[in-house]
Structures are given as C-alpha cells and as structure tokens.
Amino acid sequence: MKKFITILFLFLSWYGVSQTITISDGINVRVDDEYDFIGKLKNQYLVFHNKGAEFEIKAFDKDLKSSWDKEIELEKRRTSVLGIIANKDNFSVIYTCRIKRKLHIMLSRFSPAANLMDTTVIKKYDNQVLTPSFQVIRSEDKKTVLIYEIEEQKKMKAIAFNLENQKVLWERTVEPEDMLYYEKYEQVLITNHGDLYMILKKDNKKAKKDKHHFQIHQVTSDNAYSFFEVHMKGNLTYDVLFSYDNKNDLLMAGGLYSEKNRGRANGYYFLSIPPDDHENHQIVFEPFDEKILTNIMGKKADVKKGIADVDVQEVVHRHDGGVLLIIERNRQLERGGTGGGPAVGFTGGRSFTDYYFDEVLVVSLHPDGKLHWKNVLHKKQFSQDDEAMFSSYFLLKTPSSLRFIYNDEVKVENTVSEYVVTGNGDVKRNSVLNTDNKKIQLRFAHGLQVASNELVVPSIIRSKMKLIRVNY
Fold this sequence. Notes:
Layout: E1 3-6, E2 20-23, E3 27-28, E4 34-41, E5 44-50, E6 55-60, E7 66-71, E8 80-86, E9 91-99, E10 102-110, E11 116-125, E12 135-138, E13 144-151, E14 155-162, E15 167-174, H1 181-184, E16 185-190, E17 196-202, E18 213-219, E19 225-231, E20 236-245, E21 250-258, E22 267-273, E23 282-287, H2 290-297, E24 310-317, E25 323-335, E26 352-365, E27 371-377, E28 381-384, E29 394-397, E30 401-407, E31 415-422, E32 427-434, E33 448-451, E34 454-461, E35 464-471
Parallel strand pairs: 1-24
Antiparallel strand pairs: 2-35, 3-35, 4-5, 5-6, 6-7, 8-9, 9-10, 10-11, 12-13, 13-14, 14-15, 16-17, 17-18, 18-19, 20-21, 21-22, 22-23, 24-25, 25-26, 26-27, 26-28, 29-30, 30-31, 31-32, 33-34, 34-35
C-alpha cells in the first residue's frame, strides 16, 4: 500500500473534531469480479466493475444512493484493463486489446455520465505474439501516465503519455548494464514534468556494504537519457521509498538502514537530490534511540540489535522541502503447514497465515535532513487468511493535519479510530465510528480521498459492496 503524497504541511491549530458518516446502498458482487473506485465526478461517485469480458460503471448520487449502471464500450478482442485515471471532468481507461491480431495499447476517455468521449491508440505492435506484463503509474497531477514493461529481466521499455493533449511525450528503452531485475530493481517514478526515474539497488550485501549504492536512471520529457549514483556511506538498505517532490523539484527518499544485519533496521535516513545537480545531494543517517525503540517494542528493545518487521509506508512532502517518514511495524506468520504439503494434526490439515499490523512511527525532517520531531502512534491489528485487507490505516491529508484512520480490531463489529497529527507533532486520538449492526467492514487500503475533508472507503461483506463516506 505504499503511496506518495504532497501536502502543504503547516503549523496550524487543531480543527474541531466532528464528522458525518454516510453508508451507501449495497450492491451484489461476485467473488471473481473486480471493482475499482474511480472517484467523485460532478457530485457523484463512480465504481468500475470489471466482469472479465464486459465492463460496467456503477454510479451513486450525492447521498450515496445507487442511481444508475451503464456498460461502457471497450474493444472486446482479448481486452485487458491496465489502469483507470480520473480527474474532476472525466475518467480514462487504459487497456490492451487485439485488433486484426495486432496488439494495441488503447486509451478511452469517458464523461462523468460514462459516455465515450474519444479513443486513442497509444501504441500498436506489429509483431508482438505474447502480451507483455505492462505496468501503469501516473504523475501526481494525474496529467501524465507511464506505461512500461521489464523485458528479459534486464531492460525497461517505457512510454510516457500526456492525458491532456492525448499524445505520446516520449518512448524509450532503458537498458542498464548488469541489471538483474529481481535482485536489483527498486522503483519507478514519473514526475509532473513527464520525467522518468528508474532506481536500481546495487551491492546491498554485508560483504560489499562499502560499495552499496543506488543507480538512478533518468529520462527527461525531451527524451534525454542519463544516469548517476548515490552511495550509502558504508550502510546497508533495510527498506526505502523514493518519491518526487513536484513543488520543490527534488527527487527524495526515506529509508531504513542496517549497519551489519539486513534483517534488522538500526535507524532511518533521508535523501534529497536536485535533478539538475546530482552531485549536490544530501543524505543523512540517524540511528534509532532507546526511547523510540522502547516505545515501539517495549522491554524487548535493544538499540544494538535494532528492530525487525518495519516498512517505510509513505513519504509525505512538507511545503518547505522537508519530509515526514511514516514507518509501520507489520509482519506475517505462516503456521500449521509444511513445505511438502498441507499440515496434518490439530490444524485440521491446512495452514494459516497470521497478519500483524501494529505501531506507526512518524518522523518529521527539515529540508537539511535534521530531525524536527518524531512520534509513535500505537495500534494493534491482528487478522488471519485475509491478505491484511482490513489492516493498516488510511492517511487523510488536510492543510492543518494528517489523519491516520484505522480499524481498532479486524472484525465486523468494530470501532474505527483516528490519530490526528499536526505540523508541530502534537497528536490527538479520536473515535470516528462504530460498525456494530451496520454490516460493514472497511478496507482502508482501498480508500480514496476525494476532497480536502472527505474520504470514501469500500466495504465488501457477505457478497454486498458498500461505500462509506466520512466528511469532516
């Protein structure tokens, strides 16, 4: 659920705590169907229903009452949807299909009433027998999409497409030397300018830790290519998340580092890179102190050993060029099964997967990487065999604060709570809603912020899908 978020994070006072909860009509769903919440367009809420061979839009009105369903027209020749991008005026569906046996990447744009506005061929392949595993990512302003594939685990084929003028910005193959995709690949980004960043992780091994570095490949909007390296100063990478600060034009990363053992993190680090002056980058490492580790792990904390089972979930850009690192403690444990087949005995012949999503560490850093403040948000979430779809949190960003909204417990009858974190690090915990007798179970990982004070979260339970809206 890793995401990139830019906000104007200022030092303002608390808002009063109040919210309005609205629950939509329930609609019947099938297990093998796919549903994507498109967003809020023209004061209505749209859901994309992928039936495999048919595609339908379901609409809810301003009161979340089911208002209409409409099948949309896409090419029906072996169609596969790659992504859906929405703005306030329309939404676009990007997909592949076969026309006269030739593979096409297509984009169809629709009005808020799900009427087809236009269809564009992004690329046609003359001799592509197999359909590649395309990935689609979008820029923060939703005006540019990047469509790419990794071929033979060693090169990237990428297309940048502008959604406003419906034209290809550039197309290029990036083929780094000594690229082993599953070992070296780290992340791909597209900026509001249409620039690509492909980040590779090199020599992240104890025996080579003095050589450990990131190799960053850049393709600019005018199709110019270059690459550069950032060295880790003798530290190993435990986890890292890159993002691009479009306001301040900086490539940034927040990460966790290890001194010797990559199985445990000893601290966090901050990386800031000017895109036109790579050598003038900043990288700052800060070890975990005993107070923070004790707050997260309790009496088991050991500064020398560090901490395991933590991830950088989000990098939030501050207005001034600093960042907030959001680090969550989570793990999964498999039990009851064996490598050779199902377990036999008290487990009843099957294995189980347990999911634990617990404390969240929020670290605010100045533009030079120096600590502003840090705080731990406590929660305890446990679930089993559900792929953790009800765990973790949803981050609602407002001009004055960040709201971490989460299920107190992973069960149908549950309390939803929030931590409100202000720009100076003050924290307040509130109750948001109680789900008793409402027949809902919120999937915060699939939620969407649709306004500065509004989020919508889906619930699917007992073959019924509902949308839950929270207004502050």
